[in-house]
């Protein structure tokens, strides 16, 4: 006799929880950038490891979907691998590491280099959804500030950066103004990725499990990174190219390669790097054979 | 009101998990890409005069946390209330502004947008969603839609919108972030109109070619 087997509902969450998340998502899409509170449930991973993203993916995913999960651009890190395996098991969905094959991309702190399409949904894992949190700790106050569209605090913070350092010293989680109304935290993506959110053809969903908030950016929506006329927003940029695939204009990770302080710069997006390398090698082989 | 026992009720989703997911995804895409119809395919027979797609939207999104308002035609059919109560556990309310979901069986019976719960500036998400069964409804004219989810301008005939809706919608749009979100259902499709969509009558003055 085999022991009792636990059978989870498809998508792990129970249907009632999914409905709560789904209703919050619909209101989130209707009010771009507004943080909708929801009853965040326990999922089999600790708070802060992507529980918000997992609940969104679980509520959205279906048998026709192909899921890609990235953790800072990489498909092969522990968090990405285990979340992908989790959904293969509980949702029966296909998974992929290729950005262009995915219909749902759950991401921690990056937007893929490959341009997104209309058939894709990006699910961001968000640790702190409130962009004003470190400027105003009281939730009651930040809600009121959003209601009154009173974002002076944020501009003062950016101004103080300029006064102190000569430039805006925020390189990740750089605040954005969505559809000209709500200031929103884009989750800790590098400011390099901020321009990709503007008028993106893909639907972007944000889930903060510990903080119990859901928000969204519909496709083709204005997403403006905050700045001043004389000190406009400037995304991070890199002088060098990837040392594996030689891509330029991509976000690079600095990787230690020895104990002498030697480093190399490589693509943070592993899928992009692999595919660029394969295409290049293929072209190279064709050239040699020609 | 006659007592309807559950045995007389028609079934809900044949496959509750997958059907709900499919219907939700269609509604999500509909609100994310306003005026673009999204395909819905469910095999179901809700009691008349409740349409199939409207019934599917109710089953996918409603439960005991979402008070539902029904238009007089739907309220007049006790099997509809019984079907909704049995399958979702949702409470049917008399006052339209108490409802999280307002259901109209045709464009002409839709409540005025200003009468529905529109949320507050601090909690704009606590507003009602209006679902109109727009099956086979004719277009009301040539409309231009702009806003989030629409690349540039979308042209739409407004099929399924109530009469004199444009002024109501413009008022609804102007009170952003508060406001009503609208879902129109057809036989096998849903179409969304979130509060962010600006609708204007389209004038053909410049088109002389």
Question: Describe it for me?
Answer:
The complex is a heterodimer of chains A (290) and B (209). Chain A is α/β, with parallel strands linked by helices. Chain A is 30% helix and 17% strand. Chain A is built from 7 helices and 12 strands. In chain A, the strands form 3 sheets. In chain A, strands 1-9-8-5-4-2-3 form a 7-stranded mixed beta sheet. A 3-stranded antiparallel beta sheet of chain A has the order 7-6-10. A two-stranded antiparallel sheet of chain A has the order 11-12. Chain A is globular. By secondary structure, chain B is α/β, with parallel strands linked by helices. Chain B has one domain: 3-Layer(aba) Sandwich (Rossmann fold). Chain B is built from 5 helices and 10 strands; from the N terminus they run H-E-H-E-H-H-E-E-E-E-E-H-E-E-E. The interface between A and B is large, with 46 and 38 residues.
Secondary-structure topology with pairs:
The complex is a heterodimer of chains A (290) and B (209).
Chain A: H1 15-30, E1 36-37, H2 51-60, E2 66-71, H3 78-90, E3 94-95, E4 104-108, E5 121-125, H4 139-147, H5 152-165, E6 176-178, E7 182-184, H6 194-197, E8 203-208, E9 213-217, E10 223-225, E11 252-256, E12 263-267, H7 270-289
Parallel strand pairs in A: 2-3, 2-4, 4-5, 5-8
Antiparallel strand pairs in A: 1-9, 6-7, 6-10, 8-9, 11-12
Chain B: H1 16-32, E1 38-39, H2 52-61, E2 68-70, H3 72-75, H4 78-88, E3 92-93, E4 101-104, E5 129-133, E6 143-146, E7 154-156, H5 165-174, E8 181-185, E9 189-193, E10 198-201
Parallel strand pairs in B: 2-3, 2-4, 4-5, 5-8
Antiparallel strand pairs in B: 1-9, 6-7, 6-10, 8-9
């Amino acid at each position: 006799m085999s022991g009792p087997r636990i059978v989870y509902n498809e998508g792990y969450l129970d249907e009632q929880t999914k409905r709560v998340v789904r209703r919050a998502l619909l209101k989130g899409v209707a009010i771009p950038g507004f943080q909708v509170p929801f009853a965040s449930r326990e999922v089999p991973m600790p708070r802060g490891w992507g529980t918000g993203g997992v609940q969104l993916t679980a509520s959205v995913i279906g048998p026709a979907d192909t899921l890609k999960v990235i953790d800072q651009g990489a498909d092969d890190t522990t968090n990405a691998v285990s979340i992908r395996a989790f959904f293969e098991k509980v949702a029966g969905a296909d998974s992929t590491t290729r950005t262009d094959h995915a219909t749902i991309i759950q991401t921690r702190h990056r937007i893929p280099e490959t341009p997104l399409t209309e058939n894709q949904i990006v699910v961001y894992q968000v640790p702190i959804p409130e962009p004003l949190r470190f400027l105003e700790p009281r939730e009651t106050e930040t809600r009121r500030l959003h209601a009154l569209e009173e974002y002076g605090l944020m501009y003062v913070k950016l101004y103080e950066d300029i006064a102190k350092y000569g430039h805006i010293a925020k390189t990740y989680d750089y605040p954005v103004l969505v559809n000209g109304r709500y200031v929103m935290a884009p989750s800790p993506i590098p400011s390099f990725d901020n321009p990709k959110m503007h008028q993106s053809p893909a639907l972007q969903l944000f889930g903060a499990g510990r903080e119990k908030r859901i928000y969204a950016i519909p496709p083709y929506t204005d997403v403006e990174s905050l700045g001043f006329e004389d000190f406009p927003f400037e995304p991070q940029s890199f002088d060098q190219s990837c040392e594996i695939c030689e891509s330029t204009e991509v976000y690079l990770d600095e990787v230690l390669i020895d104990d002498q302080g030697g480093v190399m710069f490589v693509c943070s997006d592993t899928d992009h790097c692999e595919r660029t390398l394969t295409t290049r090698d293929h072209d190279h082989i064709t050239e040699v054979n020609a | 009101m006659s007592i309807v026992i559950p045995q007389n009720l028609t079934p809900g989703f044949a496959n509750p998990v997958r059907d709900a997911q499919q219907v939700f995804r269609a509604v999500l895409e509909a609100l994310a890409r306003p005026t673009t119809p999204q395909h819905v395919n469910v095999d179901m027979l809700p009691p008349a005069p409740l349409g199939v797609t409207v019934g599917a939207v109710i089953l996918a999104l409603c439960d005991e946390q979402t008070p539902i308002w029904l238009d007089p035609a739907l309220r007049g059919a006790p099997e509809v209330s019984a079907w909704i109560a049995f399958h979702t556990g949702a409470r049917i309310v008399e006052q339209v502004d108490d409802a999280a979901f307002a259901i109209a069986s045709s464009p002409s019976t839709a409540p005025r947008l200003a009468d529905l719960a529109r949320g507050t500036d601090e909690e704009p998400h606590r507003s009602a969603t209006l679902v109109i069964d727009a099956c086979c409804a004719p277009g009301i004219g040539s409309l231009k839609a702009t806003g989030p989810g629409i690349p540039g301008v979308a042209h739409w005939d407004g099929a399924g919108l109530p009469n004199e809706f444009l002024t109501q919608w413009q008022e609804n749009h102007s009170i952003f972030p508060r406001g009503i979100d609208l879902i129109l259902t057809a036989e096998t499709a849903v179409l969304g109109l979130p509060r962010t969509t600006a609708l204007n009558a389209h004038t053909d003055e410049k088109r002389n070619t």
